[in-house]
Amino acid sequence: MGQDTQFGAGGTTIGESPQVNAAAEHSGTPPGDRAFRPDIQGLRALAVALVVLNHARVQIFSGGYVGVDVFFVISGYVITGLLLRERSKTGKTSLLRFYARRARRILPASTIVIVGTLVAGFHYLGFLSGGEIASDAQAAALFVANFHFIALGTNYATAQSPPSPLQHFWSLAVEEQFYFVYPALFLLASSLRKTVPLRVKLTVGLILAAAASYAWSIHLTMTDGPAAYFSPFTRAWELALGALVAVLEPHARHFPARLAAVITWAGLAGIIVAALTFNSTTAFPGWIAMLPVVSTALVIFLGTNTPRFGAEILLQQAPLQGLGAISYSLYLLHWPILTIYAEHAGKPPSIGTNLILVAIAIVLSTLCYLLIENPIRKSKWLGARPLISVLLIPICIGTSLLTVFTERQLNHLSMDRYRQLQQYSVVLRNANLDKGR
């Protein structure tokens, strides 16, 4: 990418902007809002808790998968907030810095999990399952896991065969596909029709995109449920709604504080109701995804007011803040631990065993956050060198693919050895039969 390549007089660049403040680098809020939103951190904690408890087969949270939808709304909000804040501060949109931030934030931890899952899969599940995991890992590393599982006909809720330890990477793929397209559209919107305010252009575009995606989600959920679950086109409206919240956030300040407080609690209740009442038979995402998605958007939108008695009272509590901080690492780590253990054991673990495994995942996630995720994401050295940060993309993808290649070679050797043993066993059995005669 060239340095400071201009798109007209609006100051939009795909290169390195000369000066970006720390808030634009690390906050996920639009200009004018607090640089850190404890209510959003609490929502991350709630989202990952719902997903993990659902995967741990805690029956009361049969609809805990809606935690992923909460994450989608947050992601749309945060990415748009970053872009708006940077543009407000510098007058430019640097795609180089954007992808540098995403690379530091996402790739180190996800690469560790992909490589670790591959090694653990071959070790504990054998070369047959290991070969399948290698294919899944390749798709996960290239951010196409959702299309990979669509092609396999995977049904997230009702699959009879053991699920892939990397199946949860489908949602990461959806987000990465959003990151690939959305910043360029943001840049385009900022460059066209400069007499029209950017927020107006974004509002119109996001509403149209969200409406089309939601309509497609309803249609595809009725005709091809598994594909609808993994498709970025049925989930785009959730990310777009989060983005729209960031764009329209200045209007939230006009809401009466008491009304805003009540609505944030109603939004929080909507997420919990969805988690408690939805289950594996719910046609999801479809129209019903409106409940957790809009509920999340309301909590974020009206949380801008920091209403005195709003849902932030609960969401800002220290345990939720701590869980929110490790939510990304925990999301990545918990599923491989649960699935590899279950398949190795040969039977579904008890709830108690699953909760012990979740506790182990929390410990490992904390270590991953402290030793890998946070130091790299907040590195001042990398932050000042976005081009080097972007190089993490080929480095991390290459590391994952090299591990896939290595494990596949070992898999072929294991299969050859297995066939040789089978042939030797047949020869030995025939020899014994001949002796008996």
Task: Produce a short descriptive summary.
The chain is 74% helix and 0% strand. With 437 residues, the protein is mainly α.
Mean pLDDT: 88
Q: How many individual helices?
A: 18
Secondary-structure class: mainly alpha
Extended strand count: 0
Describe the global form.
globular
The arrangement of helices and strands along the chain is HHHHHHHHHHHHHHHHHH
Tally of distinct domains: 1
Strand content: under 5%
Terminal residue distance? 78 Å
The value of Rg in angstroms is 24 Å
Helical content stands at over 70%
How is the main sheet built?
Answer: none
Name the poorly predicted regions: 1-26
- In oligomeric terms, what are we looking at? single chain
Explain what you see.
- With about 425 residues, this protein is mostly helical.
- The protein has one domain.
- The protein has helices spanning about 20-25, 40-55, 65-90, 95-140, 145-150, 170-190, 200-225, 225-230, 230-250, 255-275, 290-300, 310-315, 320-325, 325-345, 350-375, 380-385, 385-390, 390-435.
- Helix 2 (about 40-55) runs antiparallel to helix 3 (about 65-90), helix 3 packs parallel to helix 6 (about 170-190) and helix 4 packs parallel to helix 18 (about 390-435).
- The protein is globular.
- The N and C termini lie far apart (about 80 Å).
- The relative contact order is 0.15.
